[in-house]
């Protein structure tokens, strides 16, 4: 199988999402915010047993980069996308494999014997989602896995790379390995900021990767957290923040950096390092409230659509529009998934 080549190589924390609705009491009890993503602290650990015991739960394959990889696989022809991350040798990993197979996503997991696969408690309140992640095996990913006999040929053959910001909490060396390699060979490396706490608390790790990034994707709260952490003068002007990132130093100067900030049902902003003073604004068609089932994974769906279209050779403007279509389809379903039979979005 390793001889098969895939254009897009994705890396991240594979997680099984455990979703509950009407979680207002859980937010209060565990001191959670309605539209946030955090790593579980000691005080949050009982939530995983509690939701399974006291709530009707839905299990959905998750993990930011894995969600985006499934989105890109949805857009692209078969055998276009491969994904890696670390899982345990348990039933949770089997559920992830089944979801990936259904989506046409090839995975090359590192499997840690005796470890548990990571999980994410998804607490839904209205149209907001609060994510509480326990990484477990996911944070035990080894850099050596990238040079293993199965994975190394896939890395070498890929033309595009995508990594979630969450990976910077434990795997910066692996992200540097991929991003530097991509930059040196003039391949495309994309990074998603993933959550406000990444630019806030992992700023040094983020800054070490930034010179090798060709595409940065984030939402408005992540952009604002970046602005605050970086001491930018304007903490809320998304176009100004995108410009600052777009023109920051870049190892491969031959390809301008592109920065895309989504903002829910508000407009999406895109700035290119080639024309940093000319931000592009894309209107989003708001989905009627009664059609929104679940916003979990909508940002990953956008990233997957954008990446899939980019790999397919579409213009940046078209890539944003495909991202919007994928996000719109995702919020009408439970969890980060897409309708089958497939709907053409390109």
From TrEMBL:
Enzyme Commission identifier(s): 2.7.1.20
GO molecular function list: adenosine kinase activity; ATP binding
Catalytic reaction annotation: adenosine + ATP = AMP + ADP + H(+)
UniProt keyword annotations, A-Z: ATP-binding, Kinase, Magnesium, Nucleotide-binding, Purine salvage, Transferase
Active site as annotated: 300 (proton acceptor)
Gene Ontology CC annotations of this record: cytosol; nucleus
Domain Carbohydrate kinase PfkB as annotated: residue spans: 27-342
Pathway as given in its UniProt record: Purine metabolism; AMP biosynthesis via salvage pathway; AMP from adenosine: step 1/1
UniProt-listed Pfam families: PfkB
GO biological process, one term: AMP salvage
CDD domains in alphabetical order: adenosine_kinase (cd01168)
Needed co-factor(s): Mg(2+)
Top-level taxonomic group: Eukaryota
Purpose: ATP dependent phosphorylation of adenosine and other related nucleoside analogs to monophosphate derivatives.
Homology family: Belongs to the carbohydrate kinase PfkB family.
Name used for this protein in its record: Adenosine kinase
Record organism: Rhizopogon vinicolor AM-OR11-026
């Amino acid at each position: 199988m390793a001889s098969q080549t895939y254009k897009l190589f994705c890396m991240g924390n594979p997680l099984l999402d455990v979703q509950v609705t009407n979680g207002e009491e859980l937010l209060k009890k565990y001191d959670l915010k309605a539209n946030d993503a955090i790593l579980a602290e000691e005080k949050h650990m009982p939530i995983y047993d509690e939701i399974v015991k006291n709530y009707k739960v839905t299990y959905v394959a998750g993990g930011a980069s894995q969600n985006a990889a499934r989105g890109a696989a949805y857009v692209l022809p078969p055998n276009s996308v491969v994904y890696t991350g670390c899982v345990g040798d348990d039933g949770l990993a089997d559920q992830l494999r089944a979801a990936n197979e259904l989506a046409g996503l090839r995975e090359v997991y590192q499997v840690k014997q005796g470890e548990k696969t990571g999980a994410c408690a998804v607490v839904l309140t209205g149209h907001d989602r609060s994510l509480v992640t326990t990484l477990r095996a996911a944070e035990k990913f080894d850099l050596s896995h990238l040079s293993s006999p199965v994975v190394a040929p896939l890395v070498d053959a890929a033309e595009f790379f995508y990594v979630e910001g969450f990976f910077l909490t434990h795997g910066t060396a692996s992200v540097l390995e991929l991003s530097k390699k991509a930059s040196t060979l003039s391949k495309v490396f994309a990074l998603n900021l993933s959550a406000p706490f990444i630019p806030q608390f992992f700023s040094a790790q983020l800054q070490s990767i930034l010179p090798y990034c060709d595409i940065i994707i984030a939402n408005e709260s992540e952009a604002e957290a970046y602005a605050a952490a970086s001491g930018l003068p304007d903490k809320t002007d998304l176009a100004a923040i995108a410009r600052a990132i777009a023109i920051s130093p870049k190892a491969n100067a031959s390809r301008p950096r592109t920065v895309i900030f989504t903002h829910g049902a508000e407009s999406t902003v895109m700035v290119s390092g080639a024309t940093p003073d000319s931000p592009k604004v894309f209107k989003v068609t708001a989905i009627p409230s009664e059609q929104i089932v679940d916003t979990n994974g909508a940002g990953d769906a956008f990233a997957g659509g954008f990446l899939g279209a980019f790999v397919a050779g579409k213009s940046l403007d078209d890539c944003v529009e495909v991202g919007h279509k994928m996000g719109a389809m995702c919020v009408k379903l439970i969890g980060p998934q897409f309708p089958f039979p497939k709907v053409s979005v390109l």
